[in-house]
Amino acid sequence: MKVAVLDITGKDTGRQVELSDAIFGLEPNKHAIYLDVKQHLANKRQGTHKAKERAEIAGSTRKIKKQKGTGTARAGSIKSPVFRGGGRVFGPRPRNYSFKLNKNLKRLARKSALSTQAKEQNVVVVEDFNFETAKTKNFVNVLKAFGLENSKSLFVLGNSNNNVYLSSRNLKKTSVITSEELSTYKVLNTNKVVLLEGALEGIESNLSK
Fold first, then answer.
1. Helices (H), the chain
2. Are 101 and 39 spatial neighbours (Cβ–Cβ below 8 Å)?
3. pLDDT tens, residue by residue, 40-82
4. Prediction pTM value
5. Using CB atoms within 10 A as the burial measure, which of 7, 67, 87, 94 is most buried?
């Protein structure tokens, strides 16, 4: 798959790059995508939720009324879940929501995500660029050149670039990562994937294993 290379102003440079069909042109595996996104979201959960059960409630254990003759249900303790202020039945307990996925499956999920975006023509290749100083205005000008100032965008760099990263940090709808940080969730949770030329080699080496 050949894609035109654009410059920082959004204009065609006259050059093209070859995107691997094994990464950007395969039939997406939806179940692999589902599992990888599910794991990503599960790993973000703190799992610190807690509700007190009847054994943890502070209160008397005295039998609050006689067993028979009241015309109502039996009640042994004020801490019973049926009373206001009583313990909760099967309440949430602290737990770890993370789970393990096979490396090959996660690799397939990332390739499927990139193929999905490429199929929908949401992948753009831009020649490498840098800023002399870290200014949000510099990055806003780049977004305007590609018409992305009002939509979500993901910029993938070949190597970490502090000035580019700091220039984008105040922009809520824009994320800047390196090819090593590429994930299924980040690729799909955006309207446009902007790949810098320097990132292509890293993406192919990581996903072609």
1. 21-24, 30-44, 103-119, 136-145, 162-168, 184-188, 197-207
2. yes
3. 999 999 999 999 999 999 998 899 999 999 999 999 899 999 9
4. 0.84
5. 87
